[in-house]
Amino acid sequence: MSTLDASETQAEIDQQWTTRSRRALAKTFPYEKLLPDTQPSYLASWIYVFGALTIGALTMIILSGAILSIEGPTWWHTSSVGLFVNSIHLWSVELFFFFMVIHLWGKYFMGAWRGKRAMTWMSGAITFAISIAAGFTGYVSQTNFDSQWIATQAKDGINSTGAGAFFNVLNFGQMLMWHIVLLPAAVIVLVGIHILMVRRRGIVPPYADDSKEVAS
Amino acid sequence: MNTTRRFNPDRDVEEWTGATRPYDLLKEVTVCFLVVALLAIGLAILFSSPNDQAISLRTWANANPVDFAQTAITELDGTSASATYGPPYNNTPGVSQKLGPISLAELMGINEYVNPPTDFVLRPLETVRGDAQLTAALTQFNAAGTAQQASWEHAYEQAVSHATYIQGSVSVPSGPYGPVGSMVASLTQMAQSGALDTSMLNEASFFGTDYTRSLLFLSDGGYLSAKADAQHLSGDQWGMMNEVGNYPGQAWLWLYTMWYQVKPFSTSPNADVQVWALMMVLTVALILVPFIPGLRSIPRWSKVYRIIWREHYRSQS
Description:
Shape of chain A: globular
Oligomer: heterodimer
Radius of gyration of chain B: 29 Å
Shape of chain B: elongated
CATH topology of chain A: Cytochrome Bc1 Complex, Chain C
Number of strands of chain A: 2
Helix content of chain B: 40-55%
CATH class of chain A: Mainly Alpha
Number of helices of chain B: 16
Order of helices and strands of chain A: HHHEHHHHHHE
Number of domains of chain A: 1
Strand order of the largest sheet of chain B: 3-4
Structural class of chain B: mainly alpha
């Protein structure tokens, strides 16, 4: 094995996946963008709070869900503490969707996809759709009358699409796994991507009234 | 290569180079979390959460044994909704919903094979030991030909439609239904004792988390749907977005639920697959709003943004 000189060493370091990834990340997400201390002066409306409120509700859902998972899916039927934690979980979900829908409408009326922000919008819309699936699997995992009824009714819609061949809403074990592992993981990853995109591109500027030529 | 294109106000922006203002991102996120935490805890203290106990086959058979017996015979004779469901449970041809000429359920095939005569009736009854009358009835039934079995089942189905519940047992008018009366009576007793719940859940192994068969059996009867109807949870009551009592349910499903209330979906035999197809198209449209002419222009036309950025426009004027 030969000894590398300094320039060869640096050349090898420059080619490393790790080095190149770090440099790309530092270029795309400098700290000033990730954790900004100023924002454009037009960011002055309560509508901007609903994104952060949605993340707050998601955090509460994850925390309360994690506590529920400690004692298992039927704990809350037999324990007053469990019932209380389940109630926090339920209301966090209601708040999550309430805030998220207002956030979505707010961003729609801001035209928040403008200026190369289409992926930001798309990641948010996909998160909304996946969240509905996450909420649904929670409703059919309650192990009570509600979950029985919702599962037996929902099966017809899902089976009609052919998805029933791999997604059986009457299988409690399968639904619980989707609810506590697969779908939350998808939501968390998508929200992470969404936030990074918001930080990268920044908040969309207001509509201008004039028309002009732009570079592309 | 740098090309130019015309500025499209629905796609392009002139990035901001104007004034900025102090903004504490972490403080905002923390305060928002605390506000949501207080709201969720407050709502939980005030309203708790709904929790109507699950219905078991035992609950059903004790609360309405006539309905149970009437359902059980449809499982045995293969006329229940589950027995004639088609994919993904069984291969009844031509019953799956179609989107145009295509049945997606048939394309995907059977995943969870369910055979109600065997799974819901015969196999559970065969687990009973020490009941000579039932053993004889099963022997007689299994030895008979298909036509004879169908004749007994038909006769019992006619008779049980006039059944009453008297002094702890289902009283069925007499008729030429051979051993089927004893079999259904035994299945009803088995359900009333709770043994049927255990039998159906533990078919595969000691541990069980798949309630497909139990839920299909329950949903074939009238007891589950009657309770749901009383709780305004039926499909024609916007049931998918409702919750028991006065609790908010999955309100975000309002659009999905709405289609079931209006024509042509409310009267279509293919309503489920049609509504799902429509919702998939709308979901894709939502995701692709930035690229859909017209849809992406509505915000600019509506000028709602002038309310959101009113301070900005005031400072510009």
